[in-house]
Design brief:
Order of helices and strands: EEEEEHEE
Number of helices: 1
Shape: globular
Number of strands: 7
Oligomer: single chain
Strand order of the largest sheet: 4-3-2-1-5
Strand content: 35-45%
Length: 109
């Protein structure tokens, strides 16, 4: 479900956006929400000056990829050992947790 996410530092243009967005996080939930987004980014080239500058979006919102972020052995290991192995996720008490079966949520993490 989360296989092939772009690395942090990647720069994209969103379908509904006029500016570039640089990815600065993956698999995130905005404070006070229950929606899980593939990415959080900031407007490029300015970056984050306040939490209001953060842009939450999913991979299907990406129109164009302009730059792929840094990929070293640590990033490649994280993607293959963590991100590629994630199944369905849910938000419980503000935390992202895996869904074990169709309706069972693992709260032991």
């Amino acid at each position: 479900m989360y296989k092939d996410l772009l690395p942090v530092g990647s720069v994209v243009k969103l379908f509904e956006g006029e500016r570039y967005v640089m990815i600065c996080g993956r698999i995130v939930v905005p404070d006070g929400r229950t929606d899980i987004y593939d990415y959080v980014g900031c407007v490029y080239p300015e970056g984050i000056s306040s939490s209001d500058d953060m842009v939450f979006f999913n991979r299907d919102s990406i129109e164009l990829l302009y730059f792929v972020g840094f990929q070293d052995p640590q990033e490649l290991a994280y993607r293959s050992e963590v991100l590629d192995e994630l199944g369905e996720l849910a938000v419980v008490d503000g935390e992202i947790v895996p869904v074990v079966d169709d309706d069972e949520i693992d709260t032991s993490i």
